[in-house]
Amino acid sequence: MLRRRRSGPLPYVGQPPTTNPILPVDDLDAAAEFYTRLGLEVFRYADDYAWVKHCGWEWVHLRVVDAVEGNQASAYWHVSNVDAWWTAMREASGGEIELPEPEDMPWGQREFAITDPSGNVVRIGSPSGGR
Predict the structure, then answer these.
(1) Alpha-carbon dihedral of residues 28, 30, 33, 35, nearest 10 degrees?
(2) How does pLDDT run across 30-77, given as a tens digit for each residue?
(3) Are 40 and 116 in contact (CB under 8 A)?
């Protein structure tokens, strides 16, 4: 087992962190429909806030903001098989959401990106050798 050394003054963390980016959206209904059409579950917490989940895990949060233009955010989802995710999302959306095919990147990841109705970009990828 690879043991990483503690770095800096913060406490040691012995497992990968779980982070849930909060993506700003101007229309929660449109955002919820977009992520649902890709095969994910959307749980509304309030009129202006929701979680995007899959397999019981939170992937991103959505929060309504007044001015989204120029304030888009992004997230990166590390998955074990990016090609399977691409295929499943394409099938779930019935091909109606444009999904660029996964590509091998020079930094060793195979990935593709989705852009939600508010302009937020979610890149989905796995190690190039992990297809």
Answers:
(1) -70
(2) 999 999 999 999 999 999 999 999 998 899 999 999 875 666 789 999
(3) no
Spatial CB neighbours of 36, under 8 Å, sequence gap ≥ 6: 42
Residue appearing with tokens 């091909």:
95
- Give backbone dihedrals phi and psi of 100, rounded to 5 degrees, phi first: -60, 145
pTM, rounded to two decimals = 0.84
Strand ranges across the sheet with 74-78 = 74-78, 121-127, 109-115, 103-104
Q: Which domains does the chain have, with CATH numbers?
A: 22-65+72-130 (3.10.180.10)
Assign 3-state DSSP to the chain and report helix, strand, coil percentages, each to 5: 20, 35, 45
69 contacts: CB under 8 Å, gap ≥ 6 = 119
